[in-house]
Amino acid sequence: MRVTSLASWLPEALLLFFASAFVLPNQSAYALIFYLACLPPILASLTTTRPPLTTPLALALALILFSGATLLWGHDDGHRSFRFAWDSFNTLCFVLGMALAFRDPALRRRLATLLTWLGGLNAGFAILVGAFHHGAGPRLHGWGATSHPILGASVMTVAYLTALWRGLAGPGHRLASLGAAAVMAGFILLTESRGPLLAASVATLFLCAAGPWRLRALSALAACAVIWLLLPASVQHHAETVIVQRGASHRFEIWRYTARIIAERPLFGHGLADNLHLDVFDPQGRGFITEHITFPHDLYLSLLFYSGAAGLLLFAALAASFAAQLWRRRDEGEFPWLGALGLNVLFAGLTDLGQVTKGPGPLWFILWVPAGLMLSWRPRSDAAQGCPVPPPAP
Prior knowledge:
This protein is mainly alpha-helical. It contains 15 helices and 2 strands. The protein has one domain (2-249, 293-375). The protein is 65% helix and 2% strand. Helix 7 packs antiparallel against helix 8 (174-190) and helix 12 packs across helix 13 (299-328). It is globular, with a radius of gyration of 21 Å.
């Protein structure tokens, strides 16, 4: 009876964790919420219930377990194997917890609502603080899970796409959801993070084109493009400076170096606990180190570096299984939302992300929340679905 009672808290505990990530000040604070409030109900739930072992779930579990297993043969650069084993265990529990809890349509609706409002509040607060603290630097930093300008922008994109979907699909609170999405879009722009901005743009285009609202949504995007062209030249020049003149942030140098290291152990990788050791120098040629690089800054090279070709193939198989599921169910109400979240993962990973089995943090929101929603996406009739459901496309 105690186990059953504890397991019943799982939905509320997961929602508390998601909320805390947008409210608490740092990763350690909301990670503690997961360990104390979420992990016990997840473990209790797994003693009484198992999620259906579908092909996507089997591939997700295989990717997580194989990633953790690389610690057995990889190099431990700094006695970090236990920490990464613990992170892999928690990632496994988080994904299984989502696969169990978010089969409930009402809980999916509550998660979408939470991401919309707390994401909007987080973005609005960050923009206001940034307006009064110009000396802190030109790039906007958020709060909690959005505190890093690159990873935070990708986390905010998850909330932004959710709000945009709710605003387009309805029913109810359409204008408020679209307003929250606009604030979050402003946050993403002000972080000046080009990879997340590319990912958000591609995902937005897909979301606008994938539903029965496509005509009005694409017309609105076209209107935004016209407004951009009418803005003062100084604003457009600033955007050009951010996108072009800031350089590649040493990414090509990092990727070339990573490719050479990958070639040393191409099949099964160097293990989660290994590091790159690359010093990048001042681009003005003044001879001093500007940054010490420890990871590949690319999801796909990271998969190859940490877990080799085997890990990359598992990730590709998981992505392909999700794509096939989306295609089969492309006439259902959540298709535009989940497809957009998936594209955000694939494109945001081009310029950042490291180990796929880190502990509670931004990666979970960027990668594993969309995966968990896909894994728990149940076939349903429109009447039974609790999330916003548009009418069928003509």
